[in-house]
Amino acid sequence: MIAEPNAASNLPSQKENAVHDETVLESAAQNGAYVRNGNLKTPREKRKVREQCENIRRNSAASRRASQLQNGEVVEAVTLFEVVSMGKQAMQSVVVDWVEAYKQDRNVALLDLINFFIQCSGCQGMVTAEMFQSLYKKDVMQKMTETFDKDNEDYPLIRTGPYWKKFKANFCEFIAVLVQQCQCSILYDNYLMDTIISLLTGLADSMVRAFRHTSTLAAMKLLTAVVSIHLNLDVSKHNAQRLYEVEKKRLSGKRTSYRLDQLERKRKEYEHKLLEVQNMMNAIFKGTFLNRYRDVIPEIRATCIEEIGSWIKTYPDAFLNDSYLKYVGWMLYDKQAEVRLKCLLGLQGIYSRKELVSRMDLFTNRFKDRIVSMPLDKDHEVAVQAMKLLMLMSQNCEDVLSAEDYEMLYQFVYATHRPLAVAAGEFLYKRLLSHEGDKKVQPEGGGKSGASTDQLKRLIHFFLKGELHKHVTYLVDSLWDWAGKFLKDWECMTTLLLKNAEEVGEALSDAQESVLIEIILATVREAAEGHPPVGRGAAKKILSVKEKKIQLEDCTKITEHFIMVLPQLLAKYSTDAQKVANLLQIPQYYDLDIYSTGRLEKVNRNWHLDALLKEIKDIVAKHSDMSVLEASSRTYYILCREEIAIYSQVDCARTQMIDELMKQLNQLLGCFWQKEGGFCTDAGEISRMHSALRRVAAFHNAHDLTKWNLYDKTLRFLVFETEHGSLPVLIILPALQCTYFSLLWQLAAVSEHSPKETLFPLRRQLRHFSQICTCFLHHKEKDVREKAFMILCDWLLILSHLDSNNEEGVGLLGYLPNTQLQEKLFSFIQEHVFMDGEEEKKDLTEEGKDGTCKLDDLHKKRSLLAAYCKLIVYNVVEMTAAAEIYKYYVKTYSDFGDIIKETLSKTRCNNKIQSAKTLILCLQQLFQTHAESQDSSNGVDFSSPSFANIKELARRFSLTFGWDQVKSRESVAMIHKEGIEFAFQGTTGVDGKCLPPNLSFLLIISEFSNKLLKPDKKLVYSYLQRYITEPLSCKGDKWQPLVWYRNSLLANEDEESSVLGSLGEWHPVGSSKTSSFKRKLSNGSLPETSQAEAASKAPEQHCASQLPSAAGKSRKRLKSKEMHLQEHLPFLCPGGLRRRYCKDEVKTEDVSEEGPEDTIEDVDVIGTDQDS
Q1: CA 1004 to CA 198: how far, in whole Å?
Q2: Which Pfam families does UniProt cross-reference here (predicted)?
Q3: With CB atoms counted within 10 Å of each terminal CB, which end of the chain scores lower, N or C?
Q4: What CATH number did the domain enclosing 359 receive?
């Protein structure tokens, strides 16, 4: 069919050469056929033809043809590899053509097939007819291995992109169709399959990964196709046997008929074919699978396991036994997730069929524990598929999982990874909640309502048994895809809550009612929002048209139902703060247009709305719990929108309620402040004042209460506290909150055109409040200090971002903290967040905190630190203040590491250079503290724990730059520059020859050397040389930090060996290596070079400029990249880099023998390329 196959990448050339190529290829094909048939008489003629064929292959435009194929251009297929990879012909016709060619001359066709597998491996070699006929298999494999490009690890099966993905599918399809097409003819000729199996077995044993991978995939797909043939033959044999027995009974006692003889021959033919196919299967399995299922390459192992699962499922009579299942079980322990995943998928296909499960008892007992543990796998997809497999096992295997196993698996509904949680939710629903598998249980009450009631009670019981009382939202989300029908049965849920104990039978307990209300809220939120809760899912998903329609229908259903029912529920549970707080969150998911367009009559709608507002008003009067008050305030905010029809009705009710609250507050204020300038100390009076202030603060958060003049009333409490300091904490905290909200509402009312006269009083109020908060940072009560700090941070963040350019308007209100206030803020963080271990232990002992209190305390600390870090990120506080925070990065990594790391990342996005200076400042301060604590006569102790901690901190800072060295180039270079200057700071003696006191700091900044690009390492090294006037004087152990730092800059360079053997002696970099980058620096930045040295360097530079451009493309890329990036590092070579882009200065540069500017750049690039 195709006479002369090319290499995997040797595809047809351009169209203008098509005629010439076709002629040559046709002649070569004819000559090649003669070679294969052995018709040439002399070895010389054979060699001539072979060389002609190989020359044609080498001269083809491989890269151009490959790009043409992938770009979809019309290219004529020449080889079998190209026909299959392009996939433009039906695979059936391709195989039919090859089979016809095989029938005409099997050697020619088989040679095409052999080269097809060689080319699919990415090999550029070719098996000729002479090699095929004269050499042994091992010799042929050796020659192919020799022609394989060892430097290129790429081959078709691992290439990315849609073209090569399609190629893999076509490759597998070709093998399957080939076997299917040959099953009635040449499959049993004892030549075709023997040759193919021998070839694939030999390639699978190769040391070359491409050969092993490609041949293993081919062999496994070949065995899969042969298994199908075996199955069909087995069915045909049984049919023939049955027909034979029927015919024999019909002709019993008579002579043998022709029909009986024909059936007998047919049966024996099937048996013979089955025997041959069985031999093929054994040869492939033993020759390829047994060697490759444990290959070092995970893709090969995964291929083997995937196919054996297919064999077991396709032909269980032959493969469903422990002799084959053991390989799947063993690979469940594989280190690669891809292999484990293939095992689980294969087992799912087996356990999903109930008739096969009974034959897997031994396997199930042996590997059950491993499968049960796999939902904990670190790979998410493996964990999900393991959960699905366990669900199938629980459905089709009786008593295979214990009660402890079920309890453990049920808890995965609380997993953060949603697919795993949904799989566990399906497991929980089908095993515990659904009645499909539990026919014995009769639903209470009968009908649909009774079934939902029974499911709800089971769900509540499961939740309470798990004792994870804060995770109802995650439980509902896990069950949503499978139990959405009964989870949306809000009518059943509310009926269960409103019915009396006599009507329900067994009444719900208080805990069960609380859980059911939480379930109602979680289901309403899930239906209205249509996306998973926070922490389960990266972002809100985009809903489809169908999902949006369902969401709107659910919102309508929620609104119409709870408009009538919610007032009744609030009335029943009005005294329970937790239940009421949850119920009051439901209105925020209403479709408020229902109040004007709903099916209810207007009278009924108004009646239900009045009932809701009345219940909320009563609840506000009864409760002082902030969760209840905030939920009530938000409900009024949701219902009181100007664009909806019920605005006037709700606004009137809100105004009346706030009037009553303010009236109550004024009465309490009249009794609280006594004439003598003091206040009432009665506990009951203080408690009532506390409740009143909390109610006002909760509503002032969402509603503008400026017209009630609340600011003056609450400010009096704060001023009194600053002057006398005797107010109870219960009064100070809500008063501070109310004052803050009052100023925020006044600030929000200010516009760009507000008159200047009205802004000055507000400005005085803002400054006054800031002073009060600053004063409260030193309050005796910890709660007051923390509250004042949080408010002050938010306050400064708001004021600092007002329009400072508008001097006539809002800009007058802008305010930035001075240095003294910034110091106070950090001192507060240091005392309340980064307290010493002894102080923290003492604090916990005094308060007697348990585990829950410790978590709450940690949450408060994290909130304080986050508030302060926001000031740094948004440039309210100077970025250098972050240096003090960074010192605790390693020490407090488990508690605050994520906050500090995010602060570092955000500041780096704001200003790379300043962020780098902050990092190096942090390390410098720690180093100075360490040096001061050491004995000055002995120098810095490298082995001390404090120095090791500084070095570890530097390493952690280095890791934050990630893998993109180009992106972090400027920052890392600045760290090295600042570090070198600090290390040689304070050098004394003649010409600075004495040991610098901070030289050991070079060990710390060496942690950043691996983040430098190779050109930048040379620039940093040249900058380092500026501080070494006489390198030979830098000897001895005390100079080891300098040597170590130099080694880190010269890593992977030829000079490294001389450094390691110098025992601390400082050698300058060789001229042949540094001639290029020295020209990038100004003459003043390097030691002066003598004329003799310049003369010796000039010929080398001139020779370098004359080097051939064998790697021109890579050098050009490096050159352009280097020129682009070095523009960002002027601080390392002042004047040096700028000179390269200034023609006048280039002309005055002392490199007269090197010619124009572009020649200089080429020499630089070549020098860099050599070093790399």
Answers
A1: 60
A2: HEAT_SCC3-SA, SCD, STAG
A3: C
A4: 1.25.10.10
